[in-house]
Amino acid sequence: MGSRREARNLPKILKDKAMKREKNQREKLWEEAGGHCIYCGHPVTLQSMEIDHIDPLCLGGENSFENKICSCPACNAAKGGSPLEDFLLENMGKSKRKRFSNRVNHLAAQNKMSWAKAFRLDPYTYEHFDEDFDDDDAPVRSLHFNGEFSIEFR
Description:
Layout: H1 4-32, E1 50-53, E2 68-71, H2 73-79, H3 84-91, H4 94-109, H5 115-121, E3 141-145, E4 149-153
Antiparallel strand pairs: 1-2, 3-4
Helix pairs in contact: 4-5
C-alpha cells in the first residue's frame, strides 16, 4: 500500500518520467541526424539543437517521433509553422536542396533514420533507388513501412 507522502509525490514522479522520456527522445533525434541539423547540415550539440516537427502541429501534424527531427535554431526559426516543401523551396537553392536530399538518404541508408521518415522529409527519395535499375530486366526491390504501405522499384 502506498503512503500519503507517495501520493503527494505522484505528480513529481510523472513529471520526472516525462522529462526523462523527452531527454531520451532528444538524444535519439540528435543521434539519428548524426549531430547535425537535418536541413543545413551544420553541427549542433544536444543543448543547442531544437526539435522541429516535419509536418507542423499548427497544420495538423502529429507529435510523434516520426514527425520530429533535429534542427539548428536558425533553420527551425526560418521554417516556423511552414510546410516542409514551402520552407525548402523558399530558403534553399537547388544545390542546398540536393545536399539535404543526399543527407536524408545517407542517414536512412545507414539505418540511422527510418525510411518512413526519410520519405516524409524527401518524397523524391525513391529516385535514388532506381538510378541503377534502368532496364525492364532489373530486379524488383520493395520497401515496406510498418505494414501500412510498400513501394516497389524496378
